[in-house]
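To: structure desk
From: M.T.
Subject: fold request, one chain
Message: Could you run this one when you get a chance? Sequence is below, nothing fancy, just the single chain.
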Amino acid sequence: MTVAQPDITARGVATSRPRPRALWQQRRTGRPWVPWLFLAPALLLFTYFKFIPMGQAVVMSFLDVQPYLGNTWVGVDNYRTLFADGEFGTAVWHTAVLAVGQTAGAMVLGFALALLLEGQARRLWFVRSAAFLPVVVPVAVIAELWRIIYHPTPDGLANSIIGALFLGPSQWINSPDTSLLSVMIVGIWRDAPYDMIIIIAGLVGVDRSLYEAASIDGAGWVRRIRHVTLPALRPAIAILLTLAAIRGMRIFTEVFLLTNGGPNGSTEVLMTLIYQLGFERVQLGVAAAGSVVLLAATIALTLLVRAAVRSRAA
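Reply: Done. Structure tokens follow.
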């Protein structure tokens, strides 16, 4: 319904003139195809390079794919083969451990960095930029850097640091006992600056008077963070948890470059297992089934995280 306001003409007769907001809504409802026109190029690219391959992967998961020899319909046999493989369960467990560990570690470290670097001082922009570098550096460079840090000799950088704490040298990514933790540390170091920027953006909207009122009431810094800062950061935390759920299920590059799933499968995750099934064992149908399972798990986990965040916010 258009809301009109009276207008006095030259003859003194009151007329109705729509308000600017109503005029904008009329024009917008008259051409609903305009936003889709601007979105069309991106939608075409997404359809061709993302949605069509996803549909083909779903079809492949029900086929025995034999390049140049023809495909044979096998139904759900590929899924049975995937679930019967003991490596699949191990990969799921490693993926879950890395996802939870990296998400929790990156958010805690990012929150601490955000509290330290939040403010309007001119010099903080340089510190923030330096802290944000791990996000923009290619993962291949990060993996090679940490491979040097994790050099297993006693004079390696990581072993020198723990040696100062009177701890013995570690094999890091070369040992099945420490390789998963070593990969997790790299993920936390890479993701924490991104979380820091999102949290800093959320801290801008916190009402400073609430801190003053809490201080007057005798609340310490821990209680101020718990009862003032964290409730105000719920939208930012919701965004970070959603992105972490997607990122955690699809972890691949750092694992592939650092350990390639080894040693002895101690860092095998879903993505590296799918890679091995498709490109090393040439079981393309089983690899496609693994991709479909990964897609379904990612969607389910994302929806679950969003529902949990909304229920807590309510």
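Reply (cont.): The first strand starts at residue 4 and ends at 8. Let me know if you need anything else for the meeting.
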